[in-house]
Amino acid sequence: MSAFVVIGCVVTAVAVRVSILTGSGARALTLKEVQEDGAAPAYGIEDRAGRPLAAFLERLELEVSPRSMWQGHTPDRMIPSLARVLGESEERIAASFFPDAVDGCIQVDSWPLDERTASRLQDWIEGVAEFERDEARFLPGMWVEKIEGGSYPYRLLWVPTLLLSSQTRSAAGITNRPIAWTRWLADGLDVARHGERELSVAERDKMRSDVWRALIPSGYTKALRDVPADRALALADLLRAEGVREHQVKLVSERERVQPSGSFPVLGRWGFHREEQDQPEAYSGLERLCDKLLAQPEWEFLAGMGGAYTFRRENPVHRRATSYYLSSAPSCEAPVVRSTLDLDLQFFTRRVLEELAAEHDPAVAMAIAIELESGAVLAIDGISKYQSSGFAPLHHAFTPGSTMKLVTMASALEAGVVRPDEMIDVGQGKFVLREGRSSRTISEAEGSAVGLTSAAYCLARSSNAGLTQIGLRLDDDYFHSRLRALGYDQKPDSGLGGEERGRIPSLPWSRLYSQASISFGHEMFTSLWQHAQGLASLVRGGEFKPLKIVSHVRWNSEPFPISQDFPVRAFSSETCNTLRGMMELGAREGTGRHFWRDDIEMGTKTGTAEKVPGELCLHVWGEFMDRCVEQGRVPLSKEQKALRGQRNGHRTCYTSSMAVFGRRRDLPDAPEVFVLVVVDEPRGKEKFGSKVAGPSAMRILDEALGLTRDGLAPGPDPVNGFSLVGAAPLGGWDQPWIRGRN
C-alpha cells in the first residue's frame, strides 16, 4: 500500500483548484467521479512457530516506453531533471532510458543496408543537394558504418542524446515541439531509403511508427527499480509539468517475492513459465500451494479488499487536466498461511543431507520428518549431484527396497495368512522359489536371517526369502489393493507441483517375479513423499492420511483451518500395533540395532536395494544429461537405451534408506515423529541402509524430538537449572542471524 498512498498524496497535492470557474469567459468543466482500486492484500507464509518464510515486498518502479518517450521529449532537458529528482547520476538515467544503446550508441540492426542505400543515407545525413527540398543540414550523431564479413556490407548507427538534443534541433531550424523534429527525421530517413513516394495520412503515420521502431527497438522497459517513496511526489510533479503522458513514463507499484528466512527448495519459486503470462506467478513448492489455496472461492472476497481511492477529474480528459481528491480506503490485513514446517529442523535437515552427500557421494539424497499422528510435514528436503528440473522428494522415483517389506508384512497380517511367531525356513543365504514348473532363486544381503526364523524376525532381520514367501501367500488382487490403499501408483496431490506417481505393475502380474519382487521392495518405484505417506499410515495405526504442509490461514488475527481429507481406514489398528512391535524388534535386535536408544520408544526398518544390471545408473545418466545441457541439446531415446547397464567404473548401484519412528520416554505426551531418509546410489565405502541412511535419519529424529539443538546434545546443568549446549566451532550453522533465524 505504500505506493498506493503515495499516488493518493500526489492527487491531493495537485487538487488546488477546488472550485469550478463560472465567470465570464471561463471554461465550464464537467467532472467525472472515478474510483481506482489497489491490488489485493499480499499474503505471507510462516513456519509452525510464526517465523516468516515468504512475503511480498512492495516497491515502486519506473516503467518507460523509450520509443514513445523520446519522440515527444528532449533528452538534454529530461535526463538532468530526472537525475536531480530521483537522486541518480545522469549517466544511469541515460542508460536506463535508452536500454538499446551501448556506450550511448544504438545500432539499427533491422535495416540491413546495401551499398546504394547506405550511400543515400549518408548523403542525407550530410545534407547534399539531392535532397534540396530542405536546406542542407548536417546531422550530428548519426552515421553509416561499413561491416566486414557480414551478409550486408553497411549498417546505420546513431547517438540519441546528441541527435535528439535541443541544440541539434535548433541548428536544423526546428524550434517548436520535439515531435516536429522526430517526425522530420522519420520522413527524411524514409525518403533516403525508399525515395520520394506519395503516402496517405494513415500510411505516413505507419511509416513514422516503423522508422522509430527500428531506431528505438524497446517499446517498454523497467527503467528504475526501487524508486524511493519520498521522491515519488517530486517525480509526479516533474512528469506533469513536462507533459509526460502515462504511456511514456509511469510510476507503478510492484510486488517482489522474498524469502526472509532463507531459500530452500520446498518453498518453491516464482517466475514466468507460460508464454501468455504478463506477471510472475508461483509455479512450484509451498509458494504454488499457498497461491492456489488463496485463489479458491472461499477467499475471493480478498480481491475486493485491496483498498481504493476516489477522485473527480475533468471529462473529457485533457493533456493537462486536473484531478480532485475525494477519499481513500486502506486495504485489509494481508492473510498469512501457517505451514507445518519447523524452520530450525528444516535448516538442520539440509545440513545433514549436505554432510551425508560429502561423505557418501550419492546421486540423490532426500529426507522427510513427519509429526506422525497429524501427518504434518516438519521438514523435507532433497539434494542432487546433477542438474534436476524438479524437487527431488516429489519428482525423483526410486526402488524402495526393504522398507517396502513393512507393507508386505502388514498386508499378510491383515489377511490372516501369517502369525508373528510362525517359523519360516529362509534357507542359508539363498532360497529357491517354485511356482508350478518355474523356479527363481532369491539371494539375501549380508547378515540376514538364516534357517528357521520367526515371521517377526524375518522383518527385523530383513530376510528377502522370508518376506517373499509371506508375500506369495497373498491373493494378487488383495496385495495390489493394499498398495493402492496406501497411495502407491498414484500422484500424492501434495499441491507442491512436479509430482511423480511412482509405478507398480498392473494386474494381472507374474506371481513368481512381480509379486515376489514387490514383496521385498523391487520391481516398483515410488517418491519420498509417497513412500513416507504410506509407511506413516501403517505406523500411525492404519489410518491413511495425505501428508499436509499447511495448517491454517491467519487473517484479521483469526485462524481459519484448512480443510483436510478425512482419514481412511486402510489397515486395522491390531495389524499396525503388531507391525510396530516388529519394527521395535528390528531396532533392538535387527538391522537397526546400532541405533537402539533406551531414552526413546522407537522402531526402525532399513532398506538396501541393489539395481539389476539392466537398470539405468543415476550417476551415468546424470553425467550424460549434464553434458547435454552444456551442449544445449535434448538426448535421443537411443542414447538413453545405450546407457542402460553401464556402471561407469562401479560394479553395482544401490539405493539405501531407513525409516524410523520415535517418541521420548521422558515426555510420553509429546508427539511421535517419523523420519525417512533415502540415499540413491552412494559411492562411498558403505552401501547398506543402516550405514548410509541410518545415521542421518537418527540425527534428524533426535533434532525433531528436541534431544539435540543443531545436532548438539545438552550438556550438564551447572547454573540455576539452566542447561548449556556443548561447544562447537563457529560457522554459518552456528550463527542464526546470518540465515534469518529467530
Helix and strand topology:
Layout (H helix, E strand, L loop, with lengths): L1 H12 L17 E7 L6 E3 L5 E13 L1 H7 L2 H12 L3 H8 L8 E8 L1 H12 L15 E5 L7 E5 L1 H4 L2 H6 L6 H17 L6 H15 L5 E4 L7 H10 L7 E10 L11 E2 L9 E2 L2 H9 L14 E7 L8 E7 L6 E4 L3 H18 L3 E8 L4 E9 L7 H4 L9 H11 L7 E3 L4 E6 L2 E6 L8 E3 H6 L3 H8 L4 H10 L25 H9 L8 H13 L2 E2 L5 E6 L2 E4 L6 E2 L3 H16 L11 E11 L7 H14 L5 H7 L10 E11 L8 E8 L8 H4 L1 H11 L38
Parallel strand pairs: 2-13
Antiparallel strand pairs: 1-11, 2-3, 3-7, 3-8, 4-6, 5-6, 9-10, 11-12, 13-21, 14-15, 14-26, 16-19, 17-18, 20-23, 21-22, 24-25, 25-26
Search tags:
about 750 residues, alpha+beta, Beta-lactamase, seven-stranded mixed beta sheet, 26 strands, disordered N terminus
Short synopsis of the structure:
This protein is an alpha+beta fold and 742 residues long. The chain is built from 24 helices and 26 strands.
Provide a descriptive summary of the structure in words.
33% of the residues lie in helices and 21% in strands. It is built from 24 helices and 26 strands. Strands 2, 3, 7, 8, 13, 21 and 22 form a seven-stranded mixed sheet that branches. Helix 3 crosses helix 4 (90-97). It is elongated and about 110 Å long. 40% of the residues are buried.
